[in-house]
Each structure stands twice: as C-alpha cells, then as structure tokens.
Amino acid sequence: MTISAELITQVVREVVREVASATPALATPVKEVCDGVFPDMNSAIEAADQAAREYLGHSMKDRAKYVAAIREAATRQENLEYMAKAAVEETGMGNVPDKIAKNRFAALLTPGTEDIVTEALSGDDGLTTIETSPFGVIGAITPTTNPSETIINNSIGMLAAGNAVVFSPHPRAKQLSLWLVRELNAALAAAGAPKNLIVTVSEPSEENTKAMMEHKLIRMLVATGGPGIVRAVMSTGKKAIGAGAGNPPVVVDQTADLKKAAKCIVDGATFDNNLPCTAEKEVIAVGSIADLLRFHMIKEGAYELRERALIDKLQALVMDGKRPKTEWIGKDASVILAGLGIEAPAGTRLIIMETEFEHLFVQSELMMPILPIVRAKDVNEAIDLAYQAEHGFRHTAIIHSLDVNALTRMGRKMQTTIFVKNGPSYAGIGIGGEGYITFTIAGPTGEGLTSARSFCRRRRCVLAGGLNVR
What angle do CA 109, 249, 336 make, to 5 degrees? Predict the structure, then answer.
C-alpha cells in the first residue's frame, strides 16, 4: 500500500489539532501593575473608593503598620536624596540640603494613628463615646513649593485616619510626585495594605483638579496652595480644608538678644530659600536696635543692599508688578545677586535692605531669600505695622523680645495660626520647637496645623442607661 504525501500531511495536521485541543495553552503570566498612577481622574477616584471601602475592614494595628511602611520608604537615604534633587531640578526652587531635612521631618514627625483618640462621657444616663471615623476618599491638591513633603505628610495623616487619598499634584512637580506615589504604593503593597489607597493621575492639570473637586465620590477636599485654589475648594459645598498664603512678619524690640535674633531670622528666612509659607518675609525692628540687628544679620550670611538704585533694580528683576516672578521664586541668594551683576561673597544666604513700610517687598509674599527691614519708633508701633503687613491671613508671626507684655500684646493682636517667640519661624512647625510637623496649615478654614484627626468625622456612640459603674 502506498501512502501519498497528501495523506501524510492531512494526518499530521489532525494529530496536531487533537494535541492542541487536549493540552491547555500555556498562559503568559500577566503581573498586575498597581502603582497608584491612573490615566484619568475618574479611574483614579473609583479605584481609591474601592480601596477605602476595603480599608474599613482593617484594624488600627493595620493602619499603624501601613503608616510605618510609608515612614520607612520616605526616610531611606537614597529616597531622601532623590526627592530633594528631583524637586530642585524639576521645579527650579529651593535647595537640596533643606529639602532632605523637610522630607525627613515630614516622614518622622507627622502624627499617625496615635493621633486618633476616643472621648468618653459617663453618667447616670449611661456611657457615650465620641469616635473618629474616616470620610472615605479625600482629594488633596499639593503645591510646587513642597511637593514630596506634602504628599508624605498628607498620606500619613489621611491613611492613619482610615481614608484613601487622590492626589492632584502641581504640574511643575509632576515627575517627582508620580515617582513618590509609586514608591509609597510599593511600600504599602509589601505591608499588605489594600491596593490604591494612594492614587494620582499620569497628567496632572487644572482640568483634572477640577474633575476631582466635582466628583461625587470625593467626600473631603484638602488644598495646600495659594488663595485661588483655597477659594475654589471652599466653594464646592464639600468638607474642605484650606491651607492658604501668608506674609509672616518678624518683630524685634530693644529687649531682644540681638545676636540670637539675627541668627534665627537668617536661618528661618533662608530655610529652603524662603519657600515655606511660614518663613520670615519682613522684619519690623525698633529703630534704636535696627542698625545693630543688621550688623549681626550680615555676620550670619546676609548681604545688604544700601543704594536705592540697586533696590529698585532688584525689584524690577524679581517682581512683575505686584507679583513675584515665578522664575526667581526659591532661588539662591547668590543667583539673585548675580542677576544684579553682583558676585556674592562666599557664605551669602540672604539679601537684606532697609525700606519704607509701603514697599512691595514688605507687602508681598516673595518666597525668595530677600528680606526687607522696616524701622518702628517703639515695639507697639512695630506690632501694629506687623499686623498690617500680615494682611489678616492669620498664618504666621514671629517676635524676638524678652518683654512678656510685648509678647502677649502681639499674640493677641495677630491672632495667627502660628506664633513663634524667640526662635526661627520653622520652630512653629515642629523643627526645633515642640509639637508635630505639617505642611498643610489650615488658617482660612480654621483647622490650624492639620494632623490625622483633622481628616476624620466625629461620631457619637451612645449606650443608654448602661456601663456607668460609679
């Protein structure tokens, strides 16, 4: 019997088909990528909502474990260095050493689950507890001045409170913000947390921020930025926390330790090149000590402009009308002086000059290492001028004085959220001063220095007529 080539081919094909149908195809393993970065805001919010619902079933011990994972990831030395360098390179603002410090403090000094406490009322009618519960999904808008610090700070507080968070970063800090969200998601996944507790979008924009603010699944909005974005979140009808602008004055009177005051002022005003909204923005000094204060400030690294023509030239360089030019915000003092054609001496950290009270440098929040000095006839006038210069923001004020009456008068008059006495401005956020740190300072909406409990709902749980054993 002769077997044709055509028959052989047909049999082979049938056998192959039978084998193929009997043997399941080997599936290519697909690893689910869950880094918290989504292509659109709606997808990000829906993922965060699912995460928030799952998170309700996790214990406080779980929350503490996840917060610890964030702290560990954010304080790895290679991550600290990367975040600081990336922020300076991408935003063009600040300096690397201070950003390393700010990120480390944000990770270590932000309160976690220990901030979530229960209150109790016990009496003849039974026992009532006041509990704190999460809102669900929080929409958080972060600034270009403190991009990674704010994400770390808010993530710890919001997750400690039991929420998920959707970040809308500033577009000029996009790459760093996306990197950090991915890093924190990796750390949370390793700790066993629900996926997508921290999310964002791949292309931050005003349109995405608006979509986030209007989304029905966003239960709370937290805005860290300028007055415009704070007004926007407050107008949504949602629960809103707004951290707005400031123009912190520092008063120095004749009783102050001038050498210490000068060091504190220069240190505070140059911290991250004056980017923090808490930093000293203008000095109001009693006339009798103003010259000696300037002398000590120069010894601490200040460079003084004395000629009016140079001061006017500096104003033209860094101001656009009444607003600071973005390209100069957060730049080193030596870079700004170079723009004036001045080669800064080694160690220059701050530019100072004496001006009239009405000068734009006094009235505007520059966020640059430029500090005007105004003379006052006495401490009472200095406090009154400081009150005017702060513009009612109720953000931050500083005084250097050993006169308890002056300290008391200024504190009562200013009514600022942060009031620092005889220290650098950053002592008010827990760096060298007692207390925890935050980068969301809610003056406009009244929460003050936010922490985990700021992101909670208060609930009353009542047992009528029972468990009172007194």
Answer: 85
37-244+450-459 and 249-434: identical CATH topology = no
Any idea which fold 37-244+450-459 has? Answer: Aldehyde Dehydrogenase; Chain A, domain 1 (3.40.605)
What pTM value is reported for the model? 0.89
As to burial, measured by CB atoms within 10 angstroms (0-12 exposed, 13-18 middle, 19+ buried), residue 54 is middle
Judging by DSSP bridges, how do beta strands 282-286 and 370-376 pair with one another?
parallel
Quick one: 283 exposed, middle or buried, by C-beta within 10 A (0-12, 13-18, 19+)?
A: buried
Per-residue pLDDT of the chain (470 residues; tens, 9 = 90+): 444 445 434 543 543 344 334 333 333 333 345 799 999 999 999 999 999 999 999 999 999 999 999 999 999 999 999 999 999 999 999 999 999 999 999 999 999 999 999 999 999 999 999 999 999 999 999 999 999 999 999 999 999 999 999 999 999 999 999 999 999 999 999 999 999 999 999 999 999 999 999 999 999 999 987 778 888 888 899 999 998 889 999 999 999 999 999 999 999 999 999 999 999 999 999 999 999 999 999 999 999 999 999 999 999 999 999 999 999 999 999 999 999 999 999 999 999 999 999 999 999 999 999 999 999 999 999 999 999 999 999 999 999 999 999 999 999 999 999 999 999 999 999 999 999 999 999 988 889 999 999 999 999 999 998 887 77
Can you say whether the dihedral through the CA atoms of 88, 93, 98, 104 is positive or negative? negative
State the amino acid at position 127 in one-letter form: L
Question: Both tokens of residue 203?
Answer: 């292309």
Residue ranges covered by each domain of the chain: 37-244+450-459, 249-434
Query: Can you tell me the distance from the alpha carbon of 23 to that of 72, in angstroms, rounded to the nearest whole number?
Result: 47
Residues 314-318: contacts with CB under 8 Å, at least 24 apart: 314/340, 314/351, 314/353, 314/370, 315/360, 315/361, 318/366, 318/368, 318/370
Identify whether the C-beta of residue 221 lies closer than 8 Å to the C-beta of residue 243. Answer: no
Task: Considering the candidates 34, 264, 277, 461, report the single residue annotated as catalytic.
Answer: 277
Work out the angle at residue 219's Cα, subtended by the Cα atoms of residues 157 and 129, and round it to the nearest 5 degrees.
65
Asked about 277 being catalytic, the answer comes back as: yes
Count of CA atoms in the C-beta half-sphere (13 A) of 143: 25
Q: Which one of 3.30.450.20, 3.40.309.10, 3.40.50.720, 3.40.50.1000 gives the CATH number of domain 249-434? A: 3.40.309.10
Gap between the Cα atoms of 224 and 170, Å rounded: 10
**At a CB cut-off of 8 Å and minimum separation 6, what does 295 contact?**
none
Using CA atoms, how far apart are residues 147 and 103, in angstroms rounded to an integer? Answer: 10
> For residue 173, how far is the Cα from the chain centroid?
13
